[in-house]
TrEMBL record:
Lineage of the species this protein comes from: Eukaryota, Metazoa, Spiralia, Lophotrochozoa, Mollusca
Organism: Candidula unifasciata
One GO cellular component term noted in the UniProt record for this chain: plasma membrane
GO biological process: long-chain fatty acid import into cell
Catalytic activity: a very long-chain fatty acid + ATP + CoA = a very long-chain fatty acyl-CoA + AMP + diphosphate; tetracosanoate + ATP + CoA = tetracosanoyl-CoA + AMP + diphosphate
Record domain AMP-binding enzyme C-terminal: where: 502-581
Superkingdom in the source lineage: Eukaryota
Keywords, comma-separated and alphabetical: Fatty acid metabolism, Ligase, Lipid metabolism
EC top class named in words: ligase
Domain AMP-dependent synthetase/ligase: 58-384
Gene3D superfamilies: 3.30.300.30, N-terminal domain of ligase-like
Listed name of the protein: long-chain-fatty-acid--CoA ligase
Length: 627
């Protein structure tokens, strides 16, 4: 996530006043004014916030209000003073390791207070932190850890994390690995215990002078995204971008009087960026949950008097699946801020949980723009009216594109072609000069090709540069934006981006698999797209019970839950284009529809722990289990 669309302040008041006199002629005016006012407030806040780093803001709060509660976790209260003291211990440990500004340390930790003070402690020294997804295993885990060339890896408490790292320590070279949560127990071979260091290191304050040579374009952290190809890629989150992400919460009025409830993982730009960074830049209190619990969600919100919640679409679907209660609408929440809430359950959420404002947004970790629905318009992710486009100098555009290549189509002058109302369009946002490095936009650490693929030039005028989200949106007659689909080689399932290339690489490692064409398919009653793979086998093999069991065990071992294909389609031969690229479009359209697919189909059978044949009798039960 990056700077939202910027409303140009000059002449806004004059335009608004002129239009306000005739709302009948401009029925969309009220909705536009909500966007304009929110953007102006956020812009003023962000400009002031960018005077110092995020860690400076936390240290200021700790110095001015040491006894105030910053964090609540499992009914335990953590003051600014306590979190700062623990962060100072971490900083002094890292300092003893010889680390300093612009070094990198990787972290893989669950949502817990130790995540926050470990992260902040490293920030005290200006260390860039690589935030590792704790669901990763084996090759994707090794790749993610080594992708940022860290000097150390700090692993949080939990046998699952320890086991995951121990499985790959031999692939990490000479990287030093420290594990939390062992207490005084002897550390297993290949890792060292972090706990004795925390017990013996004094919480001495670290002088902010250590950060005096840091600049806003220096690295703050790396947040991983599947992007459009290959294994997880570390998106660059600079000091500037971290503050910009946190400042996005001001769009929906977050302030120091608010209490945020965060169940989303802190390694994400949503849980970590909008939740943690948002709490720091605004001074709001943070209630942290280790993991989402549908049965505890509303009781937690009532107990802690939460006023601000974060969500992804799946979250509300799980909440709706809980038994109805007379207390469902009894809370102090004033706003829900998130993305992925589909129109089909929006009204039910609104009616049952009575949240005054559902602010659905559209953005991405590495993107250069953001839209927000301030109008409680069911299903909408923001607005793109002529007035807003004019004020923002076309910073956001929807353009026609080729589904086969996922690239924009060009007009006779070589520029992109904007779509009409109701037409699907590729979502592009202008790349501001402040985000360029020597004239280039660098989205990820690693090969420049990955970043270059996200850039579209000559969109509105010759020489401009836009970021390609790879997502398709539509615009209705009232200028509200709606997410329609994700194209290319990534789909979203259970709130996570899944790289088809990564999944295919895992599956083709199986001895009998010749080729694996991975794509996402819609599952009724679920957000996003579930994984499906069309397989071809090496000569001499059949897809029998033994092979299906092997595939099941392999994907469960190598892939996190959300990335495991729910469906398998067995092809006699691969379907490719004339240029020998995998053909996905027709396969995606057919999905797992037994009336359209004549090839053998199988589903991920967690009861039998194998892939089982998909029949008309099995399908309803399987789909019901996905809710």
């Amino acid at each position: 996530m990056a700077p939202a669309q910027k409303i140009v302040p000059h002449s806004v008041a004059a335009i608004s006043s002129a239009l306000a006199s005739d709302k009948a002629s401009f029925p969309w005016l009220e909705d536009d004014l909500k966007v304009i006012e929110a953007e102006r407030t956020m812009t003023r806040f962000e400009e002031e916030a960018l005077q110092t780093f995020l860690i400076d803001k936390f240290e200021k709060l700790a110095a001015e209000t040491p006894k105030n509660i910053f964090l609540i976790f499992e009914d335990n209260l953590f003051s600014y003073e306590l979190v700062d003291q623990m962060a100072c211990r971490v900083a002094n440990i890292a300092k003893s390791w010889g680390l300093g500004p612009n070094d990198c340390v990787a972290m893989m930790m669950h949502n817990e207070p130790a995540f926050i003070w470990t992260f902040l402690g490293l920030q005290k020294l200006g260390i860039a932190v690589a935030l590792i997804n704790y669901n990763l295993r084996m090759r994707p885990l090794v790749h993610s850890i080594l992708a940022t060339d860290p000097k150390y890896l700090i692993v949080g408490a939990g046998d699952d994390l320890l086991d995951a790292v121990r499985e790959v320590t031999h692939d990490l070279g000479d990287l030093k690995v420290y594990v939390q949560g062992l207490g005084l127990l002897q550390a297993p071979v290949g890792v060292q215990s972090f706990d004795p260091l925390m017990l013996t290191t004094l919480p001495l304050a670290v002088s902010p002078d250590v950060r005096k040579d840091l600049a806003m374009n220096d690295m703050f952290c790396y947040i991983y995204t599947s992007g459009t190809t290959g294994l997880p890629k570390p998106a660059l989150i600079t000091q500037r971008r971290a503050i910009s992400i946190g400042s996005r919460t001001v769009l929906v009025g977050l302030s120091k009087s608010d209490i945020i409830y965060t169940v989303l993982p802190l390694y994400h730009s949503a849980g970590g960026g909008l939740g943690l960074y948002g709490a720091i830049v605004t001074g709001a209190k943070l209630v942290l949950k280790k993991k989402f619990s549908a049965s505890q969600f509303w009781s937690d919100c009532r107990r802690y008097e939460v006023t601000f919640i974060q969500y992804i679409g799946e979250l509300f679907r799980y909440l709706l699946a809980q038994p109805e209660s007379s207390l469902d609408g009894v809370h102090k929440i004033r706003v829900a801020f998130g993305n992925g809430l589909r129109k089909d359950i929006w009204l039910e959420v609104d009616k049952r949980f009575k949240i005054p404002m559902i602010a659905e947004f559209f953005s991405s970790t590495e993107g250069t723009g953001m839209t927000v629905n301030f109008s409680n318009k069911p299903g909408a992710v923001g607005r793109l009216s002529p007035l807003l486009s004019k004020l923002n100098s076309d910073s956001i555009v929807l353009v026609k594109f080729d589904y086969a290549t996922a690239l924009p189509l060009r007009g006779k002058h070589g520029l992109c072609i904007t779509v009409n109302v109701g037409e699907p369009g590729l979502f592009l946002t202008k790349i501001p000069e402040v985000l360029l490095r020597d004239g280039e936009f660098i989205a990820y650490r690693g090969p420049r090709e990955a970043s270059e693929k996200k850039v579209v030039r000559n969109v509105v005028e010759e020489g401009d540069m836009y970021f390609n989200f790879g997502d398709v949106l539509t615009l209705d007659k009232d200028y509200f934006l709606y997410f329609q689909d994700r194209i290319g080689d990534t789909f979203r399932w259970k709130g996570e981006n899944v790289s088809t290339t990564e999944v295919a690489n895992v599956i083709t490692a199986v001895e009998f698999v010749h080729d694996a064409n991975v794509y996402g398919v819609e599952v009724p009653g679920n957000e996003g797209r579930a994984g499906m793979v069309a397989l071809t086998l090496n000569e001499g093999y059949v897809l029998g019970p033994k092979e299906l069991k092997t595939l099941y065990d392999h994907v469960c071992e190598e892939l996190p839950t959300y990335a495991r294909p729910l469906f398998i389609r067995h092809l006699d031969e691969a379907i490719v284009t004339g240029t020998f690229k995998q053909q996905k479009f027709e396969l995606m359209n057919q999905g797992f529809d037994l009336t359209k697919v004549t090839d053998p189909l199988y589903f991920l059978d967690t009861e039998k722990k194998t892939y089982s044949p998909l029949t008309t009798n099995d399908l309803p039960k399987f789909l019901a289990s996905r809710l």
